[in-house]
Each structure stands twice: as structure tokens, then as C-alpha cells.
Amino acid sequence: MARHLKDLTSVFARWASRVFSVELDGAPLYFGLQEIKRKGKAPQVFSKLQNEEEKCYSLLVCSSDRIKREKFYWELKDKLLRNLPPGSDVTNMSSFLPDVKNSLIKGYFLKGKPENSSHIERFLVDLEQQDQVLVCSYSGDEEKQHWTQHVWSNKEVTLKYHVVSAETPTCHPSTLNMINSDVFYCLDEVCEVLIKCGDIIPEASSVLRMLPSRVNARGKPDFPVVVIEGLDATGKTTLTESLRDTLGATLLRSPPQCLSPWRARFDQEPPLIRRAFYALGNYITAEQIYQEGMKAPVIVDRFWHSTAAYAIATAVSGPVANLPQEGSELYLWPSDLLQPSLVVVLTLDPEERKRRLRDRGQLKTDEEEELDHNHLFRRRVEEAYRRISGPDCVTVDASPSADLVLQQVLLLIRGKCHL
Ligand SMILES: Nc1ncnc2c1ncn2[C@@H]1O[C@H](COP(=O)(O)OP(=O)(O)O)[C@@H](O)[C@H]1O
Ligand SMILES: Nc1ccn([C@@H]2O[C@H](COP(=O)(O)OP(=O)(O)O)[C@@H](O)[C@H]2O)c(=O)n1
Predict the structure, then answer these.
(1) Rg (CA), the chain
(2) Which of 94, 143, 161, 306 is the most exposed, having the fewest neighbouring CB atoms within 10 Å of its CB?
(3) Total tally of structural domains belonging to the chain
(4) Nearest residue (CA) to ligand 2, atom 23
């Protein structure tokens, strides 16, 4: 057995209990495994194959080093699209043990034309030799009613399972691995990721140096702290600047100015690393809030709500129903991070938001770009904002004039913060 398969004893111990999810046309289709052949219809993933002769493969990225694993998975899609013959199809897939935390393994599902199978298989054998991926191929019987999964190891097929339909899991599989991977809940976990990725991203150590040596990220300042949240172009900058001027407050933002030189660099990295960067930004901003909040009220443009809501909304796909359920621990505020006195989320009709974006004519992050043409993503972000608890957020309609929005938020601040 190949070395990486030995390393994966725990994965194989429960291999037959695993469920596999393949994303087709944006929706996940699930299948499971059985050791004994039983009668039944082929799972949808296979019955949906356009061309009956198509060959299918799955690649699961299994390195035990999570930084390398995320980075390899992140870069693998491009590598597949570059190296596979034309006409091959690559979609996202994953494998997990239902309800078992941290059991999710991410990968890709491939379909190729039968005439390209030797080319594809040569490429997959090479890939497997890199000890980072677990390759399976799938074959159907004559009537394509019954499918078998062949687990590869060192160019050989070592295990075979019968493929069967599986029920849709009660929670989206991505939520199984979210804690301290997509969303961070304590500074130590954030630092651990950034320290470990120093080998492949030298900038990580410069970023870590921006963290004050004695962080008082949980301290409570004397003056109120008001966070303004919302999607891009909902009017956060306009409102936060007016609040600063009206209240004689200090205006801060997360990520803080000191991280600007590295932001574009970390925006290109896989979620684990990118989210750790933004999470660190919140802890640096928290320290600044504490210092400034001893002298005057503080207004903050984006904070932990942004980091968590975008991360959760990106990690799950599909409709809002796929988000972690309301009340889930995933929406809990980190216990070591300063809690603002008030969080206001600005909401805006999608058409008006687009109009403001166009008028501003600015470049957007890929995620903001995504918000524009993916209304499901936008709805997931807005709903995740709403579900985050401890401080909860108050939603304010940002479509009236800038002055009316300001007056409304001032009323909220006066009511909640006694200013
Ligand atoms: N209440 C408002 N009504 C109309 N236009 C607004 C309002 N608030 C902001 N804008 C305009 O919309 C655009 C986006 O606002 P901005 O404050 O930069 O948003 P954000 O900081 O949330 O990205 C700007 O051109 C701004 O002048
Ligand atoms: N505190 C923060 C702020 C931004 N972000 C990320 O940064 C992106 C939005 O930043 P942006 O610069 O476009 O926002 P605006 O300040 O332009 O409204 C989102 O994609 C978030 O993923 C974050 O994760 N945490």
C-alpha cells in the first residue's frame, strides 16, 4: 500500500461509512458505499451521465499537513484543467462521515471521454505518486444500473465497493470542518495557522509582527464601540465618516491600515490562510479599539461579522437553507475578542446596491464580484450576518438619503449606548 494510504488508516477504518458529495449544476448529489452488492437504482451522479461511455474518477486531497492540503487542493483545479484532455469535466466533490466533525475531505470529480481514458489515467497515476491525493475510478455494468468504486493505490486497485444512493445530510457537509478552518474562534488558532504557513508564504511573519506583543483584544473600553457592517457599497464609508464627525469619535476599520500592504497577497490564498489573515486583522483592530475607546467613542467599519459571514457563506453552496442552522455554535462570537456595544448592518435593495457600485466605478474583491452575479451568495451573507450572536446586529435600511440613514443610526446609538 502506498505510504499516504498507510498514513490514512483512520480514513480507511470507516471508508464504507463515508458519504460522497458531487456538485452538478451547482447542487450537491450524494452517494454512499456498500461492501455487498444489492439491487437498486444507480445514484443520480451516475444516472445523470450524459454519455454512457464516459469514465469517472474522484480525487480526494488527503495530506495530513492541513496547510499543504489546503494549498494543494486550491491549486489542483487549475492543474487539472490545464492537464486533462479537452472535453474532460471537473467538478467539486467531498467525502465525509455524516455528523462527524472534521471528517470532511475535499477533492474533485472528473468525467472524461472514453478515448481519453489512458491519457487521464496516466496523469492520475502521476498525481497519486505525489502522495497527496486518493484516486478512485468508477465503472458501470452493462445496463449502467450498477456502479463500482475502485480505490487506487500505487497504480493498483486495492479496494472495491458498490456505489449506492445516500440521503441528503441534515447539515451541509462543509459545516463539519468550519471551526478554526473557515471561521476562527480564538487568537491562538489564528496565529498557529499563520506561523505554520510561514514556509510557503514568507509575508505571514511580517503580518504576525503587526500584532501588539500584549494583546488586550477582550478589554472593555470606557466609551461605546459601534460597528457598521454591510455588503460593499451599502454606504458604510459614508455613514462611518459622518458618525465620526457628528460624535467626535475615532474611526477604525478591520482589516486595519497596517495590514494593507499584504491584503491583496492573502486574498489569493485558500480560505484557511485568507480567513486567518482577516481574523488577525480583527484582533489588531480590537487592540486599537481598546486604546482609542479609553479616550472617545469608536466607530468601526467592518469587524468580526464580516469575517465570519463571508467565510460561512462561501464555504457552503446553494440556498440559504444550506447555512448552519440558527443558534449553531458557528455563529458564536469568539470569547477572546472585544464585543462592540452595538453592531449595525446596512441592507440595500440589490439593484440600488449595483447602481451605487457602478457610480463608484471601483475595483472589487473577487468575493464582492461574486456577490454581484450570485444572488444566492448575497442572501447567504446577509442571513449569516443576521444569525451571528453575542453581540447581535441591528438591521438598518440604507436606501433613504445619507442624512436620514445617519439620523436613524444616531437614534439607535443614543438608545443603546446612552451617548
Ligand atoms: N444613503 C445613500 N444614498 C445614496 N447614495 C449613497 C448613500 N450612502 C452612500 N452612497 C453612495 O454609494 C456609494 C457607496 O457608498 P460607500 O459609503 O463607499 O459604501 P461602502 O463603504 O459600504 O462600500 C458611494 O458613491 C456613496 O456616495
Ligand atoms: N473584517 C473583515 C473585513 C473584510 N473581510 C473580507 O473582505 C471583503 C470585503 O472587503 P471590501 O474591502 O470589499 O469591503 P469595503 O470596505 O469596500 O466595503 C470580503 O470579501 C470579506 O471576506 C473580512 O473577512 N473581514
Answers:
(1) 24
(2) 143
(3) 2
(4) 307
Residue 257 and residue 187 share a domain = yes
Across the range 235-264, mean pLDDT stands at 98
pLDDT at 51 over 70: no
**Is 92 a residue whose pLDDT tops 50?**
yes
- For the CA of 347, the nearest ligand: 1
Residue 146 shares a structural domain with residue 189: no
Query: Does residue 131 share a domain with residue 220?
Result: no
Query: In the predicted model, is pLDDT for residue 7 greater than 70?
Result: no
Same domain, 201 and 153: no
pLDDT in tens, 142-166: 777 889 999 988 767 678 999 999 9
Q: How far apart are CA 234 and CA 397, in angstroms?
A: 9
C-alpha span between 394 and 414 (Å, rounded): 14
Residue nearest to atom 17 of ligand 2 (CA): 232
Q: Is 132 exposed, middle or buried (0-12, 13-18, 19+ CB in 10 A)?
A: buried
pLDDT in tens, 208-246: 999 988 767 677 899 999 999 999 999 999 999 999 999
Which atom from ligand 1 is nearest to the alpha carbon of 346?
Answer: 22
> Is the distance from the beta carbon of residue 233 to the nearest atom of ligand 1 less than 6 Å?
yes
Question: Residues 139, 196: one domain?
Answer: no
Q: Does residue 230 line the site of ligand 1, with CB under 6 A?
A: yes
Range of the domain at 293: 178-417
On the question of a cis peptide bond just before residue 255, with omega within 30 degrees of 0, the verdict is yes
Atom of ligand 1 nearest to the CA of 232: 23
